[in-house]
Amino acid sequence: MANRPGIFPTFFISGFECSTFLWKDRKRRNLVDETQHNKYVAEDYQILHSLGIAVSREGIPWPMVEKNGTYDFSCIDPMIDAMKANKILPIWDLCHYGYPDDIDPYSEAFCTRFSAYCKAAAEYVIPKINGPYFFTPINEITFFSFCGGEWGWVAPYNNTRDERYKLRYNLCKAAICGVKAIREVEAGARMIHIDPLVQVVAPRDKPYQQPLADHETYVDTFLGWDIISGKAHPELGGSLEILDIVGANNYSFGQMEYRESGPHAALPPDDDRVKPLCDLIKRVWDRYQRPIIIAETSGMNEGRTAWLKDVMEEALAAVDAGIDLHGICLFPAVTMPDWHTGEWLQNGLYDVQKVGEDLRRVPCQDYIDELRRWQKELNRTTEVDEDPFSDPVELQDVIDAAKRLQQKPDKNWS
């Protein structure tokens, strides 16, 4: 029995890219197909098992499972079977940038349909898996709102700041309704609301833009979580119980220089305006005082190993500062293609090698070796045991490691 029980059976988490958006060309993308996770699902979950990872983010593709108000969830049965065979606990992503063609995401009907879908999804998966039960109703509401409301990358293809604000408001409203619908099925279901960690600075030659940059850093970054927690727009019914667990995504491009239109420019890792990851996590903790996970993080190519080292050092600095951090999701488990170019990002624990029509899984051994090093440092399992659900993570081991290693926040990510 853990003295300081964590929320999950393992501290390290992973997951599989599962976006289902309508892309700029008005064609539906399905990243589960593009990465062949649907084909290699048994192997993919065997990989996680062998790596000592017993928690995985997995998508339910709303546009594919709902047709005219009826549901067919059979496409996720292979995922459920593979997770059960390998003793992996799912975090179900219910809307990963995709929604059915016939719904207007700005409408009241969107919330009604999403709520009904969430309830149906919960009714389908909960009897098939052992609890506890975890859901992410709508992934990255803030980023989704930029992509679909202001940048026009994905449906609904709008291109103004006002449309972004309206889209975010309705996505938050739908997420709150979705949480309530899931908890009608299972009152103890846990929610993880995921958005990126963001730091925006003014261009050096335009210091007058700092207030605009600060607004994105200190207001826009948090407004989705604020609405879901009830801090903003309380008329939508948000609360800290609905917010539940905060999932904060950390990527290098989350620290940016302000641009008046379009995506901002990512700061280079040695830029003196970069903030330590520990500081960004602390902003979230100070605001909500809710359990936190780093819900996605990865480096790319040969930088993956150093990235994990930096993330772990910053995470332990955060733990030592008293922040209630429950896990780190190394995402994705298997590399994914760049949405824009189609080139493989080489950002997974495993890369892919094209052999004919197959995408064979190839380990990134240096990255895996770094994961193993940290598992041992934290006294964590390096392979999923016979019953990973019998005891949660002993967070005291993580706290003790943080005190022993005495990591300090470091803004130099080079």
Structure description:
The structure is a single chain. The protein has helices at 31-34, 41-50, 62-65, 77-86, 108-125, 141-150, 161-185, 210-229, 240-243, 277-288, 304-320, 365-377, 395-405, and strands at 12-15, 55-59, 66-67, 70-71, 89-93, 134-136, 190-196, 199-201, 245-250, 255-257, 265-266, 292-297, 325-330, 350-355, 358-363. The protein has a single domain, classed as Glycosidases (TIM Barrel, Alpha-Beta Barrel), CATH 3.20.20. Helix 5 (108-125) runs parallel beside helix 7 (161-185). The protein is built from 13 helices and 15 strands. The model has no long low-confidence stretch (mean pLDDT 95). The relative contact order is 0.15. The strands form four sheets. It has an eight-stranded parallel β-barrel with strand order 1-2-5-6-7-9-12-13, surrounded by five helices. Strands 8-10-11 form a three-stranded mixed beta sheet. The chain is 38% helix and 16% strand. The protein has 414 residues and is α/β, with parallel strands linked by helices. It starts with 11 loop residues before the first strand and ends in a 9-residue tail after the last helix. The longest helix has 25 residues, at 161-185.
